[in-house]
């Protein structure tokens, strides 16, 4: 538990730097591009992250899961790199299809299509989950935090350059693309200094040969990761498709500020997963303690959003974005719920029940997408935020029910222990 808190501390340090700098580059982008221009920017970034999220395998989990054995992480790393290469190939095809058809369903000008495709490809080439997994396997969270700090720094510098030399959507997308490449290089360099990367071990066969459940785990975590992306990036795209670029831009700002807690939830999840893999017998108790801590933090953050959210929106993004205050508050509540559920979801995945975690998250997400247009016709961007809130609440309740069910099954299957011999009453 002490190491877990220390690792979360390192991750939160990185998140803190990212949060501060994100306010800077978000302010630069929104105030330079305006509501509509920032909407186009938000759609391009969301499309790139959607493609990467769908194609990307959660290879850091594979490195942690199969690299912790006595033979070391060489085979697990080789398997992860092979999957990353597969992700780039498949993702490029997906990006081509989505960008080619973009104008049929997204408010995206034709002159931005090639820029959009280029950003998607750069995002795919900058996939960095494998080196992240190597660092987490060795509990090198301080080293990982230092490498990840490169992204917000480069993004902020790029945004400043865009303001002065290319104050357009293209300028800011180039800044975001440069930050993706920079953080990928930093993480690979950090991982390579700690662990030798043996390219001769790249293979899609070795790990599945030694672990019969490998492909099932790969597909389950990939789908779960895709759902996490769908919960934010695809939602931005759908909001833009239904309401236009201004709604997409407003929803992204409200989401980035209000759902900072989701980023915190992912931070907790990333820190706790390696510990749960190693803890085994103590995993449930560890997850319970983290959920309790998360509940307190979530309530405090929601209260903060209620009191200072409108001021924060208008200070950072401008008065035009103040209209999205209530959407931000609703998304903050959804983020608080996700924060509580982060350790529960990690517990399911670490116990080899990634498929269950996927189903529990997929069903409410599908319902939210199905009801999105009706929700937006009812309350605009607030309706979209309510759809996300409902999805998060149902998913976290589902994680809790699934864990209770698994515990009951384990109790039934365990053989009855013989009664301890009675002790006499003599002191």
UniProtKB/TrEMBL annotation:
Keyword hit for Cell membrane: yes
Keywords from the UniProt entry: Cell membrane, Membrane, Transmembrane, Transmembrane helix
GO CC terms: plasma membrane
Localization, UniProt: Cell membrane
InterPro entries reported for this sequence: Poly_Biosynth_Transport, Polysacc_synth
Pfam families, per the entry: Polysacc_synt (PF01943)
Domain of life assignment: Bacteria
Recorded topology in the membrane: Multi-pass membrane protein
Protein's organism: Pontixanthobacter luteolus
Protein name: Oligosaccharide flippase family protein
Segments crossing the lipid bilayer: 7-26, 38-57, 78-100, 112-137, 290-311, 323-342, 354-372, 384-406
Keyword Lipid biosynthesis: no
Predominant location category: membrane
């Amino acid at each position: 538990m002490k190491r877990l808190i220390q690792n979360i501390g390192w991750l939160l340090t990185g998140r803190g730097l990212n949060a501060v700098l994100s306010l800077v580059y978000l302010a630069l982008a929104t105030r330079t591009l305006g509501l509509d221009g920032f909407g186009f920017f938000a759609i391009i970034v969301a499309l790139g992250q959607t493609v990467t999220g769908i194609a990307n395998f959660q290879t850091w989990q594979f490195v942690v899961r199969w690299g912790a054995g006595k033979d070391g992480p060489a085979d697990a790393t080789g398997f992860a790199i092979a999957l990353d290469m597969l992700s780039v190939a498949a993702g490029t095809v997906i990006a081509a299809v989505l960008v080619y058809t973009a104008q049929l369903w997204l408010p995206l000008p034709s002159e931005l299509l090639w820029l959009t495709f280029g950003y998607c490809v750069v995002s795919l080439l900058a996939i960095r989950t494998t080196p992240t997994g190597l660092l987490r396997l060795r509990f090198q969270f301080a080293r990982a935090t230092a490498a990840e700090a490169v992204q917000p720094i480069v993004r902020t510098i790029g945004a400043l350059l865009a303001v002065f030399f290319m104050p357009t959507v293209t300028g800011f997308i180039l800044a975001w693309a440069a930050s993706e490449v920079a953080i990928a290089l930093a993480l690979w360099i950090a991982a390579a200094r700690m662990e030798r990367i043996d390219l001769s071990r790249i293979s899609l066969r070795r790990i599945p040969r030694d672990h019969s459940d490998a492909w099932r785990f790969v597909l389950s975590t990939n789908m779960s990761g895709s759902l996490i992306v769908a919960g934010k990036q695809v939602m931005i795209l759908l909001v833009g498709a239904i309401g236009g670029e201004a709604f997409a831009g407003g929803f992204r700002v409200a989401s980035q500020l209000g759902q900072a807690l989701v980023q915190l939830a992912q931070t907790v999840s990333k820190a706790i997963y390696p510990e749960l893999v190693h803890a085994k017998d103590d995993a449930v108790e560890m997850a319970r303690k983290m959920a309790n801590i998360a509940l307190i933090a979530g309530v405090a953050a929601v209260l903060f959003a209620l009191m200072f959210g409108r001021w924060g929106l208008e200070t950072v993004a401008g008065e035009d974005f103040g209209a999205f205050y209530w959407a931000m508050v609703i998304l903050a509540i959804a983020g608080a719920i996700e924060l509580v559920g982060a350790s529960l979801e990690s517990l399911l995945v670490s116990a080899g029940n990634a498929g269950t975690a996927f189903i529990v998250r997929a069903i409410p997400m599908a319902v939210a997408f199905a009801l999105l247009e009706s929700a937006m016709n009812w309350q605009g961007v607030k309706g979209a935020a309510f759809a996300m809130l409902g999805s998060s609440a149902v998913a976290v309740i589902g994680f809790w029910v699934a864990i209770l069910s698994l515990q009951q099954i384990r109790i039934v299957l365990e053989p009855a222990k013989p009664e301890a011999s009675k002790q006499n009453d003599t002191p």
